[in-house]
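ARCHIVE CARD
Drawer: 12
Card no.: 0347
Subject: one protein chain, sequence and derived structure
Cross-reference: see card 0346
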Amino acid sequence: MPQQNALPGLVFFILFALGVLAAIPSGNAGDFGLSATIAVISFVIAGVVASAIKVANQWERAVVLRLGRFQQLAGPGLFFIIPVVDTVAYRIDVRVIASAFKAEKTLTRDTVPVDVDAVLFWRVIDPKKAALDVADYSAAINWAAQTALRDVIGKTVLADMLEGREKLGTELQRIIDARTEPWGVNVISVEVKDVLIPAALQDAMSMQAQAERERQARVILGDSERQVADSFNAAAKTYADNPTAFHLRAMNMLYEGLKNNSTIVIVPSTAVETMQLGGVSTLATVGSAIAHAKAAGAAEASEAAE
């Protein structure tokens, strides 16, 4: 609702007060009829002058009609009209206005019912057209936005709607702006807030996404196993061509086993022959290594206990 300005009321009060003050001397002289006439005339003049004074806010434009025909577009600020002859038919707000609109249970191109909520940002750029060419431009814009939204939903598949909200908003802006341009309205942007789909379809899409992630995980696992197998194959070829490297690797594996305080170490027969573990001196060396490993483990345990 437009705010009422106090200036016309103040002008009326001042003019009427001056008229009453002018009528008081006549009243003291005994001519009450003349005083009453002056008071009535001052009241009428104050009312006419006050009704001729109009004020429009910075964000308003006043549409003035003279005897039913368009006269001028006044405002912002102070302006004057001819009482009785001129009337302020509309006060148009030229600020940016946000209007929410939605489409419920509308079928997409792939026959999926969806609920879409959106926000329309628009402003009046031609107050004359908005006042004279359409009865209620605000309601007309709302209906144009809803019908455009239903048309776009019917031409779009669900996947594109969920992934391309910006594209959907751009298409809506183009359609709505083309419809509202003759009304003097400019559509700034359309933002799609939410797209709601049935709960059963949400569950199905969730299962599909879960299955897709599981498939990707299995593919990644299989690729990792293939890479590991290729690495082992390359290592085997290296050891086959270099027995010394294989011997050092076997010795390292044996050392790691002894370091873990293992009382029993299983060694392949081929490794025994390769590393010459069957001799007495070699067994003594291994036993000494085992004893040394056990002593080191006991020392670490005692230190941890302290």
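Annotation on reverse: The beta strands are 53-56, 60-66, 69-74, 77-80, 86-93, 97-107, 113-124, 185-196. The chain is about 60% helix and 20% strand.
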